[in-house]
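help with this:

***
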Amino acid sequence: MAVSARQRLAALPHEVWVYIRRAPGTFIWLAILLVTTIVVARLSPGAERHVLGSRSTNLHHLEEDPLRVLVTSAFWLSGGGWITYFIIFNIFHVPAERWLGTLRWVLVCVIAHVGATYLSEGVLYWAINDGRAPEKAAFTLDVGVSYALAGVVGVLTYRIIKPWRYVYLAGVLVFFATPLFSGATFTDVGHLSAVVIGLACYPLTRARHGVWDPIATARSWPTALQAMTRIS
């Protein structure tokens, strides 16, 4: 039976709610990021630097108050870009949270965020002591969600059916490792570290069943599109 456009529109809010509640952690995080992004957009450049700088996981703050900045830095974006992260979160975080469950997904995010922060800042600390970076780099701005995201990108390797799992993994490693060969920064080290940490979170995936087959998904698109166009 054909479904009318009015019926589809009436069902849309329910479908959106079902979609959101299947990954509550992701959308709560996005909501907080939206609020903080709006706040930053209303600040003067000087106030923005102060607000983000006080939440930066740089060497200075990791020594003075590590817990505070490790938590707060994950809820601010440097330079905006919320729409971009909304799309990326739906591509990676949503399927990861649905597959792993909210608790395990949070664990992957936290482990990747904290682990990659300390590894990248450790590299920066070594560079400063070795004279390869200026001492003021200890106060550099480092906020955002990218380390947790990279960790989730890594752990999603185990969600994909073989042999496409290895194609995905190769693409991920090339994407995150390439910057290391062309003027790498400490954040590039952090991103690759986060991916490796995500891969090391394999024990959290062992009890999760089901794999994603990209070929089967692609083959189902024509049928799904045909069903969507059956509007009387």
About this structure: The radius of gyration is 20 Å. Residues 33 and 73 are 11 Å apart (CA to CA). The mean pLDDT is 91. The first helix runs from residue 5 to 21.
